[in-house]
Design brief:
Elements (H helix, E strand, L loop, with lengths): L7 H20 L10 E4 L2 E13 L4 E12 L4 E5 L4 E3 L8 E3 L5 E4 H5 L11 E5 L15 E5 L4 E12 L2 E13 L10
Antiparallel strand pairs: 1-2, 2-3, 3-4, 4-7, 5-6, 8-9, 9-10, 10-11
Amino acid sequence: MPRLISRPVPVLCVLGLGYLAGWLTGQISSPQLKAGGGDRWGDSILTAGSVSTQFHEGLKVQVTQDALYFLDYRGGRLLATVPNSIVTATAIKPTGTTKMLGEFAERDLAADFKIDPAVGPTPHFLMTPMSLGMASGLLAGVSPLCVVETTTNQVALYQVEQTNVGAASKMRIDLKELKSMSKSDAGQGR
């Protein structure tokens, strides 16, 4: 009858390698679901982009807050809101109601781009959120909204600002920069 020889060293090596592989796999972060797509229908555009990134102490991860943007061509308006999950309970409905969409802030694009659709050509807008990345310091994780008006060759950067006053939240859309993309203006403003 053959005799089995016990070899504890190789078994311990395999167990150690398995433990190390499991630990390394646990350290790799899983992909996060992020808004960022957009849609267009007729004279309307919808998109989403990050407005803030904060570190969640309990989960030990960075949490991004997104804004929802709606651009209305005909009205020359840009609307934005920052969805939050707020549960309200009343005596009638003690389980509460979940409210996610707050008030929309509004921006007059015709005034920002100095165009009059009633007199001049019909404006044509494009928009997309942009990531500033980690190189931007304090604004890391913020995605300003880039709006291009193609009939005047101008580009504007907007940022949603949300201030909390007690239980109420106030929204506004700030114009951060407006620039011409014309070649004749390329050397100016440096």
